[in-house]
Every structure is written in structure tokens, then in C-alpha cells.
Amino acid sequence: MDETLTVVLGGGRGTRLMPLTAKRAKPAVPLGGKYRLIDIPISNAIHSGLRRIYVLTQFNSASLNAHISKTYRFDYFSNGWVEVLAAEQTERSRDWYQGTADAVRQQLHHCVRSWVTDVLILSGDHLYRMDYRALVERHREADADVTVSCIPVTRERCSGFGILAADAEGMLQRFVEKPDDEEDITHLETPPTLREAWDMGDQPYLASMGVYVFKPQALKELLEDETHIDFGQHVIPAALANRRVAAHVFHDYWEDIGTIDSFYRANLALAGENPPFIFSDEEHPVYTRPRFLPASRFQDAQVSSSLVADGCEILGAHVHNTIIGLRARLFPGCEVRDSIIMGADFLESAADREQVLAAGHVPVGIGEGASIRRAIIDKNARIGRDCVIHGDPDRPDEEHADWSVRDGIILVTKSATIPPGTVL
């Protein structure tokens, strides 16, 4: 696999994840209490024997760049790397990345090199565990210019995906982007023989995962048209017209974490009785930045169906169905349900908290007697005592300086202060 170059796309604005992406890149958004989204594709690549990895960054990339540089370091005798390629002005282009394909186009001189036989392109905002070796092998066996990794879906789910149609040999012929529920797309159904061979069951349609393998020359030629700025919308449809495009079917759990609702659901699913994705796989752990934090401390607390990261203090709090991130503080009498508490970037000492309180301010964490439900509390937030922050699925979207509502979920902005007694 040394001839395969991996490119992780991490440069988009992430507007659908606002305000979580107001101060950080989308792949830097915390996940599962102690990880970041970028850890998923990089960990998958490392476990697949792929150690030549570029991460393309652009917007709000400082924390993402720092995370990558502090986390992914191979030894001096390795021929691998995880390297950030930030958007930059060159003699060829003085523009920011205009889309996923344009990002690769602007860094093509790094990707098309003499030793590269395959270019694997990944998204930085998906949750799944995948051995990319099977995908690359399928690409090579099919002698394909492009191979698209797909998941089988029912007709009811098609409106959320780009849907691809395969012929009897498993080569892709047609593409429809997010077809309407009323649209007739029976012509996109996978042939019955392939459906059986690929074990698709009652899911006859192939949905693109946004995971691709290209021959370097094909990638170069497809990107020569500068109107092709996005892989899903432009490059793949263009490839279908005159290239060999193969399908690879993936059957395990996969979630596109592109919206607040999907981010919320995917996180809370990790705390359930039978989580669809398990971080504790000993053979395929998810790597992240090592931190030297103390064990979390519980005192007179009740915690159920939840994940609690390192360095937390849960003091006399009631917690259910919740993700508690690094260094979080939950003070006596508070109740947190169906929520994500991202924690803090620093440990506020007892002496510091006393000074903060003496000055009439709010300490970092969830204050005494506060009630949090269906909410996402971003890092370093200060929630005053007796605050009530309750989301509701039927509540319309709202936008405020320190908090907002998306998909019926209340989001408290990073480093925001919610005064004591506030009801949101």
C-alpha cells in the first residue's frame, strides 16, 4: 500500500454545523467526548497500512493543524507522514479552495507523483470504521479509472444521497444527486445478480459515501476542467461519461456528520446500550491526541447510559444519555439529560473558581441546580446556577450571540457565559 496516497478533505466552511464550526474547522469538531472528527479517516488509513497522508485545510484551521501535528507523528525510520496542506496562493492560483475537487486541483502537484499508483480521497466528517485495502484492491482488479465506495440504501433513504447505478459487471453508469421522494428512479436499481452477490438484501440502491480512489492520470485529466469544483456534483458525473468507474460496496456502519441533527444523534448513539460504532475496538482503536489527565472523579453522582471522558468532576449531578467531554465540571444538584457537554480546554482550579465566584462571575462548567436537556454545550462554556436549557424537537431555529437553536437542539457557543437563573 506504499504506492497509495491518501488525501483527507478538511477545508470546507462547515456551515451546516454552525455554530460548532464558528471557531474551528469541521474536522476539528469534538466527537465521542475525547476525539475529533479528523481522527476517524486518519485512524482508518493507518490501520489499512496507509501512512502517506495529506490533510487539506482552509477555514478556521489553527486548532485542526495543531491537533494533527501533536497527534500523528511517525518515527524517523518510517516512510510515512500525516501532513497538512493549507490553502495557499501560487503562481497557478491565487484563490481559496472553491470546493472539494478544487482543493485537490490546487494541491495536485503533491498528489500526482512518480511513486503514486492510486489516490484515495476521504472526507473529514464521517463516522465509520473501514479497511481501505479492500477498496483499493477492488479498484485495481476492475482496472478502474475511478472507484466509488457505496452503501446499500432503501428507496426511502435515497433523497439524502447521491445515487449511482451499476451495470451487471459492477461498473457505474449513471448518477442522480438526492432524487426527490416522488421521482421514479427504478432505472437506478442494482441488477438482481449483483444485489445478491453484494449481499444488498432489500436495499437495491447504491449511495455514494464520498470515498473515492483515482488513478493519478485520470484524476489529473478530470481536474483539468476548472468548472469541476466538487467531486460529487461535477467530477464523478464527468467520469461516468467516458471513464471506467467501479463500485465498491461497504456494509458496516457509516454516518455522514454534516448537520447538527446528525452530529447530535451520532454522538448520543455512542452512549446507548448497543452503540453502532465502538471506539474500544482493541484491534482497530481510534487514535487521538494523548493527554495526561487524571481519572474522572464522581462524588454523590448518578450517571447512566453516558460516556465520560478524562479529567472530569461529576459532583452531586444526575446525568443520563449524555456525552461528557474532557475536563468537564458538573456541580451539585444539576441535571443533564440527552445532551453533549464538550468540556474544557483547561482545568480551572478550586482557587481559580473561588476567585471567579468572588468577582461575581460564573465558573467553567454546569452550575449548581442547572437543568440541561437536548442541548450541546460547547467547550469552555460557563453555565450559571439554576439555569434551564431545554431543547424541543418542535422548537424553531433561533440565533443569538451566545446560544442558538438548530433542529430543536439548543447550542451554547464555545466560551459563552449563560448568567445564573437564565431560562432558554
Structure description:
With about 425 residues, this protein is of the alpha/beta class. It has 2 domains: about 5-270, Spore Coat Polysaccharide Biosynthesis Protein SpsA, Chain A; about 295-420, Hexapeptide repeat proteins (UDP N-Acetylglucosamine Acyltransferase, domain 1, 3 Solenoid), CATH 2.160.10. Helices cover about 20% and strands about 30% of the residues. The chain has 10 helices and 29 strands. The protein has helices spanning about 40-45, 60-70, 100-105, 110, 130-140, 190-195, 215-220, 230-240, 260-270, 350-360, and strands at about 5-10, 30, 35, 50-55, 80-85, 120-125, 125-130, 145-155, 160-165, 170-175, 205-215, 245-250, 255, 295-300, 300-305, 305-310, 315, 320-325, 330, 335-340, 365, 370-375, 375, 380-385, 390, 400, 405, 410, 415-420. Strands 15, 16, 18, 20, 22, 23, 25, 26, 27 and 28 form a 10-stranded mixed beta sheet that branches. Strands 1, 4, 5, 6, 8, 9, 10, 11 and 12 form a 9-stranded mixed beta sheet that branches. The chain is globular and about 70 Å long. The termini are far apart. The model has no long low-confidence stretch (mean pLDDT about 90).
